[in-house]
Amino acid sequence: MSRARVEGVSRGYVETSWGQVHIRRAGQAGPAIVLLHESPLSSATYAAVLPALARGARAVAIDTPGYGMSDGPPARAEISEYASVLLEVTRTMGLDRIAVVGVHTGASLAVQMAVQAPDRVTHLVLSGVPLITEEQRAEYLRSWAPEVPIAPDGSHLAWAWERYERIWSGPPDLLHLGATTLLANLQDYHLAYNAAFRYDPRPDLANVRCPVLLYTAEDDLLITSDEEAVVLFPDAQLERVPGLVGQLPLRIPTEFAARVLRFVSAAASR
After folding, report:
1. Tell me, what's the pLDDT at 75?
2. Which candidate, 224, 242, 245, places its Cα nearest to that of 165?
3. How far apart are CA 37 and CA 166, in angstroms?
4. Alpha helices for the chain (secondary structure H)
5. Of 13, 21, 147, 193, whose Cβ has the fewest other Cβ atoms within 10 Å?
């Protein structure tokens, strides 16, 4: 993905109790929409989504602490603590009422934000709510995000590329984004991953009071979780995007933005 400036998108930092959190923002009017990425990516995931959202909303994409250009969390922090810091970011920015969009780890963070601040979170758009078994949880914690040393022969570089070839598929520019973003935070990339694997969202779903859209690729790694989650939320709908394996903000950014805007606008008018 090019690092050229995207017209209408500004970048900056918000001071928090965990240090500086990096954000990208666009739009001057309309509902506030907060965008949370999957691990171990960054707000660059939404670089092409932000200008499209800005046509009808004030959109903010956040680098989860420890990823992108945000300062890191404590050595071990839980999803509830990450969510509290993200709510702190939005309060500092003066965003009192927010719709929250989250993919995978971002979906867990969004659910926790809605539970912690039900008076502030107006809508959720989620992909990959991790409703996994205890056996799956243990296996993910064991093997999904291993600590990888910086190898003298550079083999860690090939490992990152091969990882995204295996779990994403797709064009080289997409694999390049995944691999390089991981490598930029290699020594701590596992922290939020493992926080997400330790978090069981099931008890929280019934306590989410806002409308929920599960907007998911039909071949997403967590599609069966979203199919289970839709019946556990009090007010949710599921929409599958055919022919894709995931990463909707990267693969179909304009369509993604349009769907988010339609949902937030329709839900607000009910």
Report:
1. 81
2. 245
3. 20
4. 49-53, 79-92, 105-116, 134-143, 155-167, 172-184, 190-198, 202-205, 223-229, 248-251, 253-268
5. 147
- DSSP for residue 76: S
pLDDT band at 2 (very low <50, low <70, confident <90, very high): very low
pLDDT (tens digit per residue) in 126-182: 999 999 999 999 999 999 999 999 999 999 999 999 999 999 988 999 999 999 999
- Pair 127, 101: CB distance under 8 Å: no
Tokens of 114: 């809605």
Dist CA 229 CA 216 (whole Å):
12
Is residue 23 within 8 Å of residue 12, measured between CB atoms? yes
**If 0-12 CB within 10 Å is exposed, 13-18 middle and 19+ buried, where does residue 81 land?**
middle
